Automatic annotation (TrEMBL):
Stored InterPro entries: GntR_C (IPR011711), TF_FadR/GntR_C (IPR008920), Tscrpt_reg_HTH_GntR (IPR000524), WH-like_DNA-bd_sf (IPR036388), WH_DNA-bd_sf (IPR036390)
UniProt entry keywords in alphabetical sequence: DNA-binding, Transcription, Transcription regulation
Transcription is among the record's keywords: yes
Transmembrane segments: none
Protein's name in the database: GntR family transcriptional regulator
Domain HTH gntR-type: 4-71
Keyword rRNA processing appears in the UniProt entry: no
GO molecular function, one term: DNA binding
């Protein structure tokens, strides 16, 4: 049981390092250094990397080493496509069942995002963005769907975090879009809320050119024709 706990701890820690760009796309990973950094033995580290490799977050090159996978643009867009079409339904369904406490929680998340926007705190801002969307799935009793969406959207979530690091991109747009969604929920306008959350998730397309320009070596594949930046 303890070995399993260490494996889960290593898996979660390394996965978070990849999603938050502490381990960057294309970076060669030293398992001994990871073991020392995380204070976890070599075997759980090795098993965690095998597990994350199956999820597409590591590549192993024979005679060379283990590397963090680059962000695959095709996987990113396909994952985002599925999420948009799922989430617009989730949000529409949640409008009629959200409690006052859940709506208050959404507004609290927005207020805190404003604080972290001001301090340029990527980690907390991203976590709050994640939590904002999760509330809708919980309100609609779709927690297993949320877990599945997160697993399917690993590449999309890596891009979303990286997007926050690009100088000049406006974090406040995310906050404004969140507030518009909440306003639609409070007005019991399911159709508008559904439309707004879809637009919100699609808005990352506006920043593709800037992100790819800032981090050209972090990506593989090509931007789909329908997503080509102007």
């Amino acid at each position: 049981m303890q070995i399993s706990n260490y494996q889960d701890e290593a898996y979660n820690a390394i996965k978070e390092m990849i999603l938050s760009m502490q381990l960057t796309p294309g970076e060669k990973v030293d398992k001994t250094e990871l073991s020392a950094q995380l204070k976890i033995g070599a075997t759980p580290i090795r098993e965690a990397i095998i597990r994350l490799r199956r999820e597409g977050l590591f590549n192993v090159i024979p005679q060379s080493g283990t590397y963090v996978s680059k962000i695959n643009l095709d996987e990113m867009y396909q994952g985002r496509f599925a999420r948009v079409n799922l989430e617009r339904t989730i949000v529409a369904d949640a409008v009629d069942v959200m409690t006052p406490d859940q709506i208050a929680k959404l507004e609290q998340q927005i207020a805190l995002q404003g604080v972290y926007e001001h301090s340029r705190d990527y980690d907390h801002f991203f976590d709050l963005d994640h939590d904002f969307h999760e509330i809708f799935y919980m309100a609609d009793h779709k927690q297993f769907v949320w877990a599945w969406v997160q697993q399917m959207n690993l590449q999309f979530n890596r891009y979303r975090y990286l997007r926050l690091e690009v100088s000049g991109l406006k974090w406040h747009n995310i906050i404004t879009e969140h507030q518009a969604i909440v306003d639609a929920v409070k007005a019991k306008d399911a159709e508008l809320a559904s439309h707004l959350v879809a637009d919100h998730l699609l808005a990352i397309d506006d920043d593709v050119k800037a992100v790819l320009s800032a981090y050209p070596n972090y990506f593989e594949g090509k931007v789909a024709p329908s997503h080509q930046p102007d």
